[in-house]
Amino acid sequence: MNISKHEQRVLHELALGGAIHFERLKNGKVHDVTCYTRDGYVLSDCTLSVFQRLLKKRFIHSKNGTPYRASALGIKSVRAQMSQR
Hints:
3 helices
C-alpha cells in the first residue's frame, strides 16, 4: 500500500510509542490534532489531513476516547527505519 512521506513519518513515531491527541467539536468531529512522540515532543508533520488519511486507511485507532495510537495494521505497514538518535 502506498503511504506518503508525511504519513510514514507520523506512523513511524506512533509505532515507536507516540500518540495523537485530539479535540472534538460539539457535533463530534475532530477539528484539531497534535502528535506527540514518546519523548513528549510535538511532531509538526501531523496535520488534520494526514490524520484523516491514516484513520481512513485504518492505520490508527482510539479506544474509549483515548489518544489515537498505531493499530496492528499500521505497525505492519510502516517501513522499517533506524532511529536517528
